[in-house]
């Protein structure tokens, strides 16, 4: 059956790999294949010496030789302020240059050009859209795009912006673990409580979801958008750099080509060690001695060593998972199925630890690399007019949203795990005589001090009636839509007048 051009595809925009899928008229889902038959493409963008753009596999193939102009793992930087410590730590682990952008955001340099992060996400989305369009025979214009459940409002907005840049209508943003649960649960007439443990390349999410046939209700979510396979690779990299320093007295960390070769092999060694007990870490001619003698890198690696080097990371995921279970008010025995999503969950120790924790092995019900895109495609299909699939998604916000009050403390408007969509009103008043404007600073995060949370923006309500301090009675309405995106409006309660709101991302 030919697909209507209003088709909505599903896109999993991952830190390391991205994937597209489409649901057919009868609700069957197909992954979109790339040249060579792969269903995922590396989320990598590069510009080569000749100034040609490379995206996906082509970009990855040359990244060892062109490390300065190969942008990867940029999802970790999307929607972030430049002063964020995350930005600093990303800069330490990548070979391309990361610096402050002009819009209180992060900018990336590549072959003499400067990009905002959403522009790079847009390149990857465009690649998937183009491959899908070629495959389907019409220009794809609409998509459901997934994001980590633990993304803030600002990060979600940035992903939407990436779609706008290439005229791709991002019809809906949904959370990655929720999408995986859709892939698992649609068409099965379930009545279960599942826990999704999603450890990908860059992010960790955990969601507890109750599935009742086609109703998917998220009870609680949590995560760390700075915890993923890349951190496991970095633990290996640190170890081999240290070993090399001890053996040869040479620090390779400032040599971008050597670092890229080490990075590549670190990931391959890690993956090998999921299937076998030992894997040598050998790179010939990695550098020269001051006397001009070539040096090789040779480190003995086995699974036990990898587990020791990364135990703190696995511990962190279990700690976060425990906190989410407390938030949901449940214990291990209340979980019917544990679903593993994300490539890093193939590490055997992760499966062992979860099996021990829950007293049963995780479900094999979904494919760890494909479930998110499949769920997004199913959801996309359900939003199409021609569809008879109706899905009810009840999701939550991952962190509190609130406003700053005197003394820099957070007045929580929506607590973490508040159901979305949601709306709340907050009373506000003028604090000085004759005040014409009211400025409200909005934050997202669970810390009682706003300075420790993420600044979402500064809203100025202009046209306040000038009167004495405390006399104006304003009602500010906060609405979080089904995508977890916030909008605001204000009303003067005495005149009924709606207040104009302007949003600007504060440059603080
Ligand atoms: N067999 C394996 N054993 C261990 N790790 C693996 C294995 N296969 C893949 N990985 C790791 O999984 C990660 C990629 O997972 P995935 O493709 O699910 O991430 P992503 O969707 O790109 O990232 P995210 O969801 O965090 O944005 C990489 O770090 C990769 O090294
Ligand atoms: Mg993923």
Automatic annotation (TrEMBL):
A Pfam match: HSP70
Say if the entry is tagged with keyword Cell membrane.
no
Q: What does the UniProt keyword field contain?
A: ATP-binding, Nucleotide-binding
Could you name the domain of life of the organism this protein comes from? Bacteria
Read off the InterPro entries from this record. Answer: ATPase_NBD (IPR043129), Heat_shock_70_CS (IPR018181), HSP70_peptide-bd_sf (IPR029047), Hsp_70_fam (IPR013126)
Which protein family is it in?
A: Belongs to the heat shock protein 70 family.
**Record-given protein name:** Chaperone protein DnaK
């Amino acid at each position: 059956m030919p697909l209507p051009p209003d088709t909505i595809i599903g896109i999993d925009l991952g830190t390391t790999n991205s994937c597209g899928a489409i649901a057919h008229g009868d609700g069957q889902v197909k992954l979109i294949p790339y040249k060579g038959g792969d269903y995922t493409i590396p989320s990598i963008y590069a510009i080569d010496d000749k100034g040609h753009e490379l995206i996906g596999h082509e970009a990855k193939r040359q990244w060892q030789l062109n490390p300065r102009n190969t942008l990867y793992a940029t999802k970790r930087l999307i929607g972030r302020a430049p002063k964020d410590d995350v930005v600093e730590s990303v800069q330490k682990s990548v070979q391309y240059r990361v610096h402050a952008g002009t819009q209180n955001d992060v900018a990336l340099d590549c072959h003499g050009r400067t990009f905002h992060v959403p522009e790079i996400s847009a390149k990857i989305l465009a690649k998937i859209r183009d491959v899908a369009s070629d495959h389907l025979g019409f220009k794809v214009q609409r998509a459901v795009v997934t994001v980590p459940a633990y993304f803030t409002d600002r990060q979600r907005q940035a992903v939407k912006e990436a779609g706008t840049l290439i005229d791709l209508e991002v019809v809906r943003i949904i959370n990655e673990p929720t999408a995986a649960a859709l892939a698992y649960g649609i068409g099965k007439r379930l009545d279960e409580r599942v826990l999704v443990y999603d450890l990908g390349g860059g992010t960790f999410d955990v969601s507890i979801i109750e599935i009742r046939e086609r109703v998917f209700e998220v009870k609680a979510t949590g995560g760390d958008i700075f915890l993923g396979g890349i951190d496991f690779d970095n633990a290996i990299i640190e170890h081999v750099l240290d070993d090399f320093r001890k053996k040869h007295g040479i620090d390779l960390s400032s040599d971008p080509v050597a670092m890229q070769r080490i990075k590549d092999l670190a990931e391959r060694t890690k993956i090998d060690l999921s299937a076998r007990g030992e894997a040598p870490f050998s790179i010939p001619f990695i550098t020269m001695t001051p006397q001009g003698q070539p040096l090789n890198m040779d480190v003995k690696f086995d699974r036990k060593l990898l587990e020791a080097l990364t135990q703190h990371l696995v511990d962190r995921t279990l700690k976060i998972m425990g906190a989410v279970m407390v938030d949901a008010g449940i214990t291990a025995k209340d979980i019917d199925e544990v679903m593993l999503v994300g490539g890093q969950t193939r590490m055997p120790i992760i499966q062992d630890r979860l099996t021990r924790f829950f007293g049963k092995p995780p479900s094999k019900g979904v494919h760890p690399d494909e479930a998110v895109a499949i769920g997004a495609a199913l959801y996309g299909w359900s939003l199409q007019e021609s569809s008879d699939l109706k899905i009810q998604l009840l999701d939550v916000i991952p962190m509190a949203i609130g406003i700053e009050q005197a003394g820099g403390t957070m007045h929580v408007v929506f607590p973490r795990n508040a159901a979305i969509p949601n709306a709340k009103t907050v009373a506000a008043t003028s604090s000085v005589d004759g005040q014409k404007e009211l400025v409200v600073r909005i934050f997202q995060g669970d810390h009682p001090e706003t300075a420790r949370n993420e600044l979402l923006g500064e809203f100025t309500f202009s046209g306040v009636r000038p009167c004495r301090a405390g006399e104006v009675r304003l009602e500010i309405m906060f609405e979080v839509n089904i995508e977890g995106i916030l909008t605001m409006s204000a009303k003067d309660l005495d005149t009924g007048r709606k207040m104009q709101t302007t949003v600007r991302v504060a440059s603080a």
